[in-house]
Design a protein that fits this description.
OB fold (Dihydrolipoamide Acetyltransferase, E2P); five-stranded antiparallel beta sheet; 23% helix; Rossmann fold; 10 helices; alpha+beta
Length: 362
């Protein structure tokens, strides 16, 4: 049961070119998991989210969520009739109520409060010790956790999140990201998450939508979209892939752990998670080097056997983007044209990809 989102509208706000801003999006989004809408500031991400919510009126739109028509050419459901939760950049909690009061208000408005859902949400977001505090007694990260809990307790069919971490400093952001990661397994609610931060994409996205200048540039499962060399211009130095694996071994002497995935093993800094836990790694194209032989006399400890499947030009004429296959996993490497010529690289060749342990993020 996918969700259908088609929005086309002309807005009054002016662009740098002086003309009006146009938004055009036609998407079929998964009914579960986290869909991340990613793009530069001003590209239309928030406008699309507000149109889905009914906060902005698109003159031409078709929005269907779990077989319920929110908008088409015949009808327009107002915001209060759309079964959605919305988490903004700022928590916007009711200041005269405690955190618990804000949550009880949301649960009551759902029409059918569920005590078991209350317990699940409060425990998942670790809010038990915060319920008696007023919003001005909470940190930014704590307020956003309460705002997320409030949205979940409204029992939405769709959860919308508009750059919820943008106003937080790095420590608070790192504090709340693990809670957001748990959403996909704890709840079956589809989430549409807007951001312009690449680390949030690689940590959270199951499905990725790229936007620029009001239009969709690409959409699909995150691993597929990120591994397209043709999108190197869109991501620039942030071009990377996501590798999903599980923790297979720990080396306490050196503070490292080994992550096993479909194409091999990668050593990373120890995150102190349990053996067997799932983890997502982000490998930037600029941090991957290639060799014809396995170089064991190197400080680079991660060496993966790969095949070269694509060579694409980049906006920088001196470099190229190489797509490599490592088992069932795609890896990108940004290398110089000179290196390609020197090694006389050919499609289909077997090579060794080298990735610095210190360069892998998660």
């Amino acid at each position: 049961m996918n969700n259908q989102i088609r929005v086309s509208c002309q807005l009054d706000r002016r662009t740098m070119a002086g003309s009006g801003f146009s938004l055009s999006a036609d998407l079929t989004l998964p009914a579960e998991g986290i869909t991340v809408i990613f793009g530069p500031s001003g590209c239309g991400k928030t406008t699309l989210l507000r149109c889905i919510a009914g906060l902005d009126l698109a003159e031409d739109a078709e929005i269907v969520v779990q077989d319920t028509i929110w908008q088409d050419h015949k009808r327009f459901l107002p915001v209060h009739q759309r079964k959605l939760g919305y988490v903004f950049q700022e928590a916007s909690l009711l200041p005269h109520l405690t955190a618990g009061g804000n949550l009880r208000y949301a649960a009551k408005r759902s029409g059918k409060p569920q005590p078991e859902l209350w317990d699940q949400v409060v425990n998942l977001l670790s809010l038990g010790t915060l319920l008696e505090r007023k919003p001005d007694q909470l940190s930014g990260g704590e307020r956003q956790r309460v705002a997320l809990a409030r949205a979940l307790l409204s029992q939405p069919s769709l959860l919308l999140m508009d750059e919820p971490l943008a106003s937080l400093d790095l420590p608070r952001k790192q504090e709340i990201l693990p809670y957001l990661e748990q959403l996909r397994s704890a709840f079956k609610i589809p989430v549409i998450y807007v951001t312009h931060a690449m680390d949030e994409v690689t940590r959270l996205a199951d499905y990725l939508v790229l936007m620029d200048q009001g239009e969709i540039q690409a959409a699909g499962p995150v691993e597929e979209v990120l591994s397209q060399p043709s999108l190197a211009a869109f991501f620039g130095d942030e071009t990377s892939v996501v590798i999903s694996g599980c923790i297979a071994q720990r080396d306490p002497q050196w503070g490292l752990m080994k992550v096993t995935f479909a194409g091999g093993d990668i050593w990373i800094k120890d995150t102190h998670q349990a053996l067997g836990d799932s983890v997502r790694l982000r490998v930037l194209a600029r941090d991957v080097s290639l060799s014809r032989s396995e170089d064991v006399d190197s400080t680079i400890q991660n060496r993966l056997r790969v095949s070269l499947v694509e060579i694409s030009d980049t906006p920088d004429a001196s470099t190229a983007m190489l797509r490599l296959k490592c088992g069932d996993v795609q890896i990108l490497a940004r290398v110089t044209q000179r290196a390609i010529s020197s090694l006389d690289l050919k499609l289909g060749e077997q090579l060794w990809a080298q990735i610095k342990t210190a360069a892998v993020t998660y």
